[in-house]
Amino acid sequence: MRVVFIGGVKSSAVTLKKLIEHNVDIAMVYGFEPNTTQLVSGYENFATICANSGLNYTPFKKINDHTNEIESLDFDVLFVVGVSQLVSQRIIDAAQAGAIGFHPTQLPKGRGRAPLAWLVDEIQDGAATFFVLEEEADAGAIFEQECFSVVESDTAKSVELKVLDAMDVALDRLLPKIKRGEWNPIPQDDALATEYAIRKPDDGLISWSLPAHRIDRLIKAASEPHPGAFTFHDETKIKVLSSRVENTIKITGVTGRVLKVRDQEVLVQTGSGLIWIAPEQQHMTRLKVGQLLGYRVELEIFKLRQELQHLKSCMGDKV
């Protein structure tokens, strides 16, 4: 059973290492090497792994640019794990037995984009799911599904670790079957399908008018390995690393204002309830009790109009 592997993140690395551990015949490894890795959550480079294991390795930016090359390879199974690009049908069809994809939700629930963040945001249990890769995203029949729980205290990082652990278990069941030539996936029930939409870095903006528990979910969902939640103070953008809802202190303040500062946390009034946030270290010294986080739109518009009027007056005097 010869395999071609395509990947580029931590979940891809787990799969590749398991293929090596199970002595699967790997014809070629294609590793994602973008111009910048800053916006690739959990990025991993496979060049060293392949060199140490004596595997053929090809870097890519757009996998579909390698279609002709992949079609020329003699292989049985294609693994595509941790790649956000849509793989062309020609590449999928190049595998003689078929192609296998991965998704960290309990498919058919949670198809689509940014599943890790959504699992945390909604406190939704997930799964390491390996399925038949088809043209429709995340809709193929399921080979293996190892479930795990998501709890209120989980962050994107802790759920990522649960995903990787569940992948280990699922692959230890799946790979021996694949090596024996077994191919018996179970079709998904489309009537039970739900879908997650794309999330982008700017979606990490904190709206302090929301209840404390919703802000807490956002901060946890947007945390590492994602770009992170953030707010503003004056002209400074402040990244928030972690949070916890405060349920015992009896204090009421204006929405968005800092109420207390202690250790490496600040207590902020939300639209409903209080929340402790931990900003990046370099911003702690600038945050004081009474300061306002975020912007009040009408006040900002008024300030901008005043500045514009001042500029017009200056220009008029010069003319």
Written overview of the protein:
Helix content is 31%, strand content 25%. The chain is built from nine helices and 14 strands. By secondary structure, the chain is of the alpha/beta class. This is Formyl transferase.
Brief characterization of the structure:
This protein has about 325 residues and is of the alpha/beta class. The chain has helices at about 10-20, 45-55, 65-70, 90-95, 115-120, 155-180, 210-220, 280-285, 295-319, and strands spanning about 1-5, 25-30, 55-60, 75-80, 100-105, 110, 125-130, 140-150, 195, 230-235, 235-245, 260, 265-270, 275-280. The strands form three sheets. The protein has a seven-stranded mixed beta sheet with strand order 3-2-1-4-5-7-8. The protein has a five-stranded antiparallel beta sheet with strand order 10-11-14-13-12.
Element string (H = helix, E = strand): EHEHEHEHEEHEEHEHEEEEEHH
Q: Provide mean pLDDT, rounded.
A: 94
Instruction: Tell me about the largest β-sheet.
Output: 7 strands, mixed
Helix/strand/pairing category = alpha/beta
Strands of the biggest beta sheet: in what spatial order?
3-2-1-4-5-7-8
Shape: elongated
Give the helix proportion (percent range): 25-40%
Low-confidence stretches: none
Distance between the termini: 80 Å
Oligomer: single chain
**C-alpha Rg (nearest Å):** 24 Å
Strand content bin: 25-35%
Number of strands: 14
The number of helical segments is 9
